[in-house]
């Protein structure tokens, strides 16, 4: 028997061109999983090239990779993406809702567009993806749905009412869906990372970051691989009896 945790599985990971999504993609591939690398077109950067780079690294690990462009806010694009993934891999075992954005402003200055865009990507995007995969998973009586929430959902943060609401929404969504599909061999869980060293946290001003780091009991930012380790566990057979849970990966920031 193989010792790889995800041997023979296939996964769709949203926003997998960089950061935490990419780390999860590479770690899953290293555990024997074929990967659909979702990416979106963003102004000012070549996400297609970054996704292709992720796919090349997955190939280097001996697994199949499929780059799939889709904006998770677009339900038709998501449905087409999922159909493409199932056709290519023959099945889809694991969905990781990782795509996420921030538009940080205090409530006084928060435009409705800042609210709407963050909810649309972080929360409604996960809804679109889960809805697109759920029938397939129900039919196969197997599935793993993992959504990347945030410590901000648990403790709040100045300037992040929109982000906190979207990420807390993912937790309620997960617990409800977990109950709906618990008898169908499908588990639904959330990972709540603390501050992780990616482009998202590089955008935090240095003086603000200097105030944040001392509040982390471990005293440093996590790495994308720390989140990927938790994702592998939740996707693996060893987590078969775990559903509707929030797994915090935060260096003790919230406990
Ligand atoms: P990142 O900005 O590097 O990655 C975000 C990814 O989401 C990118 O690949 C981006 O292209 C993609 N994306 C954005 N909008 C999309 C859309 N509409 N459709 C498809 N893809 C889209 O940031 P990251 O730190 O790697 O964040 C990954 C996830 O982890 C996010 O959900 C984020 O909220 C969450 N998170 C990050 C931290 C942290 O400290 N970095 C902490 C907690 C949670």
Folded structure, characterized:
- It is a single chain.
- The chain is of the alpha/beta class.
- It has one domain: 3-Layer(aba) Sandwich (Rossmann fold), CATH 3.40.50.720.
- Helices cover 47% and strands 15% of the residues.
- It contains nine helices and seven strands; from the N terminus they run βαβαβαβαβααβαααβ.
- A seven-stranded parallel sheet has the order 3-2-1-4-5-6-7, with helices on both faces.
- Helix 1 runs parallel beside helix 2 (47-60), helix 1 packs across helix 9 and helix 3 (75-89) runs parallel beside helix 4 (112-140).
- The structure holds nicotinamide-adenine-dinucleotide (NAD).
- Residues 14-15, 17-21, 38-40, 42, 47, 71-73, 98-101, 121, 125, 148, 150, 193, 195-196, 198-201 line the site of nicotinamide-adenine-dinucleotide.
Assembly state: single chain
CATH superfamily: NAD(P)-binding Rossmann-like Domain
Helical percentage: 40-55%
Overall form: globular
Name the strands of the widest sheet in spatial order. 3-2-1-4-5-6-7
Overall pLDDT score: 97
Task: Please tell me the CATH architecture by its name.
Answer: 3-Layer(aba) Sandwich
Quantity of strands, as a count: 7
Q: How is the CATH topology named?
A: Rossmann fold
What percent of residues are in strands? 5-15%
Give the distance, in angstroms, between the N- and C-terminal Cα atoms.
38 Å
Main sheet characteristics: 7 strands, parallel
CATH secondary-structure class? Alpha Beta
Count of alpha and pi helical runs: 9
Structural class: alpha/beta
H/E series: EHEHEHEHEHHEHHHE
Q: What is the number of domains? A: 1
Cofactors, ions, other ligands: nicotinamide-adenine-dinucleotide
What Rg do the Cα atoms give? 17 Å
């Amino acid at each position: 028997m193989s010792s790889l945790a995800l041997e023979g599985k296939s996964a769709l990971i949203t926003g997998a061109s960089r950061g935490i999504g990419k780390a999860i993609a590479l770690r899953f591939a290293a555990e024997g999983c074929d990967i659909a690398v979702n990416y979106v077109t963003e102004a000012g950067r070549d996400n297609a090239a970054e996704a292709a780079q992720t796919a090349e690294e997955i190939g280097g690990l001996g697994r199949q990779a499929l780059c799939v462009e889709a904006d998770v806010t677009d339900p038709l694009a998501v449905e087409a993406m999922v159909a493409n993934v199932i056709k290519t891999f023959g099945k889809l075992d694991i969905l990781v809702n990782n795509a996420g954005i921030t538009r940080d402003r205090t409530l006084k200055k928060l435009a409705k567009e800042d609210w709407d865009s963050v909810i649309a990507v972080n929360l409604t995007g996960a809804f679109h993806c889960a809805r697109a995969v759920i029938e397939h998973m129900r039919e196969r009586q197997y599935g793993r749905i993992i959504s990347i929430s945030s410590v901000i959902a648990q403790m709040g943060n100045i300037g992040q009412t929109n982000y906190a609401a979207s990420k807390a929404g993912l937790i309620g969504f997960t617990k409800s869906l977990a109950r709906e599909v618990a008898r169908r061999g499908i588990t639904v869980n959330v990972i709540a990372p603390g501050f992780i060293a990616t482009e998202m946290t590089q955008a935090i001003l240095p003086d603000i970051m200097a105030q944040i780091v001392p509040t982390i009991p471990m005293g440093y930012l996590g790495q994308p691989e720390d989140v990927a380790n938790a994702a592998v566990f939740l996707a693996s057979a060893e987590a078969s009896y775990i559903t509707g849970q929030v797994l915090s990966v935060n260096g003790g920031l919230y406990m």
